Amino acid sequence: MKVLSERLDRIDNEEELAENQKNEKEYAEAEAKTARTEYSKSRGPRTKGVLFRRLPDGSLVNADLTEEQLQKREAKKLARMKKIQEKMEKREKKKLQAKLKKKEKKDKYISSESSEEMNEIDEQESNNASRSKKKTYTPAPPPPVSAWKAGKFVATLDHLNFLYYLGC
Q: Which of 36, 51, 104, 117 could join 113 in a cystine, given CB atoms 3.0 to 4.6 angstroms apart?
């Protein structure tokens, strides 16, 4: 009997503890909610009501940014654009140099060798040009009999006839 009463007391204590924890959790949540509502009342609007503004040159910018931040962004954009422009100029220079080298080779062959070699160079360039052209897509012709119409049986008969022909 003593053991039973102790167990009942433990169960009652556990239930009371669980209930107390539940009440404390609800109380903490209610406090947090009231704190959030008070904070949202006191903090004011997140923006001034204007998200973007138009600069004198007509571009849109974020209204939250200061003039210094705007200048830094513009400087970064200009630097990026200059870098891209320099790369493009380098590529163009390389292409021009390659064309000049080809012309020099042609001129050397013209001055020192016969016109046959000149023709060979022209043929090589025309071959390179034809290789670089995109080929058009030409689909394969359809089979004489559709596999859907012929079905599995026809294919099996053809296979058997082939085996018979081989003598298997």
A: 117
Tokens of 52: 């973007």
pLDDT tens, residue by residue, 13-66: 788 888 888 889 999 999 999 999 998 888 876 666 667 778 888 888 777 777
In a domain, 81, yes or no: no
Name the token pair of 79.
Answer: 């630097």
pLDDT at 131: 58
* Residue with token string 């009999």: 145
CA–CA gap between residue 93 and residue 25 (Å, rounded)? 73
Residue 68 lies in a domain: no
Round to whole Å and give the CA distance between 155 and 168. 18
Q: How many domains does one find in the chain? A: 2
Assigned domain for 27 exists: yes
Separation of alpha carbons 109 and 128, rounded Å: 19
Range of the domain at 31: 6-39
* Residue 34 within a domain: yes
